[in-house]
C-alpha cells in the first residue's frame, strides 16, 4: 500500500523530498491527483506515512494531508487519513 503526502506549497514538498531521501526513505514525486482538491500541485508518494510524517515533523516540515491509495474496478481511490 502507498500513501500520498500533500503540502501547502512547492518549497515544502521539495524540502520534504530531500529530507526523506537523505534519511533513506523511498519517495516519489508526482503531480497532485485531480481528485485531491488540496495542496500545491506536487505530492509525494511514500510506503510508510507514519514514519515519514514523524521524520518530517522532526525537521519542522508540515504535511497538509495524507491520502491512502487503493484501487478498485473504477480506478484509483484516494482516502484521506486523519493525522
Q: Can you put this structure into words, describing what you see?
A:
The model has no long low-confidence stretch (mean pLDDT 93). The radius of gyration is 12 Å and the shape is globular. The chain has one domain: Alpha-Beta Plaits (2-Layer Sandwich). The chain starts with a strand and ends with a strand. A hairpin with a 2-residue loop joins strand 4 (65-72) and strand 5. It has a 5-stranded antiparallel sheet, covered by helices on one side. Helices cover 28% and strands 36% of the residues. The protein is built from 2 helices and 5 strands, in the order E-H-E-E-H-E-E. With 83 residues, the protein is of the alpha+beta class.
Overall geometry: globular
- Average pLDDT: 93
What is the makeup of the main sheet? 5 strands, antiparallel
| Low-pLDDT segments, ≥5 res | none
CATH class: Alpha Beta
Total beta strands: 5
The computed structural class is: alpha+beta
By CATH, the architecture is named: 2-Layer Sandwich
Cα radius of gyration in angstroms:
12 Å
Whole-Å distance between the termini? Answer: 17 Å
Along the chain, the helix and strand elements come as EHEEHEE
- The CATH topology assignment is Alpha-Beta Plaits
Number of domains: 1
Largest sheet strand order: 2-3-1-4-5
User: Can you count the helices?
Assistant: 2
Helix content: 25-40%
Share of residues in strands: 35-45%
Amino acid at each position: 500500500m502507498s500513501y500520498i503526502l500533500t503540502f501547502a506549497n512547492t518549497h515544502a514538498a521539495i524540502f520534504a523530498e530531500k529530507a526523506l531521501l537523505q534519511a533513506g526513505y523511498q519517495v516519489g514525486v508526482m503531480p497532485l491527483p485531480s481528485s485531491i482538491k488540496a495542496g500545491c500541485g506536487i505530492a509525494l508518494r511514500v510506503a510508510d506515512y507514519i514514519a515519514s510524517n514523524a521524520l518530517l515533523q522532526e525537521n519542522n516540515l508540515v504535511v497538509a494531508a495524507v491520502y491512502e491509495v487503493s484501487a478498485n474496478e473504477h480506478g484509483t481511490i484516494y482516502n484521506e487519513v486523519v493525522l
